[in-house]
Amino acid sequence: MEVLKEVISWTHTITATLSLIFGSIVLFGIKGNAKHKKMGLWYFYAMLINNLTALAIVNAFGKWFFPHYLAIACLIVIIPGIVAIRQKHKHWLKVHIISMVISYYLLVGGAINEAFLHIPKLRPYIINNEPILGITHMIAQLIFIGVLIYFLRKYRKFGTNNK
Fold first, then answer.
1. Where do the structural domains in the chain lie, given as residue ranges?
2. pTM, whole model, 2 decimals?
3. Which residues contact 68 (CB under 8 A, 6 or more apart)?
């Protein structure tokens, strides 16, 4: 049983790291080309595995807790994002942009939490209930809101009935 927990934990860590890498390439690279499509698909699969393994990790408290619900939320967000590019419905690009930016924010938010939990210099901020974790998340949220607005404005003329 311990070996299975280790495999799940390492799979989660590796796919989370790969998701951060693939997602940054997709988010900050040129859109619509072959590299974007390939990295985007790799991001989707890495996120799928990352969030499914997150649902299996219960060793922190021996039960489900808040991050498990965020994993479910992320799965709910990434699936329409990938379906939208396949279906090309009227607002497919908006759905895709919103889904992918939110999924990447959830990933970065999880990384922030993990950093505060596992980096010894940061852990006391959680233990002492310092506001720095909330401030860090607020800064990340503001950045991702800006990124979302930027992409929605940049691509507002594209994606409506473009098949």
1. 2-154
2. 0.87
3. 54, 55
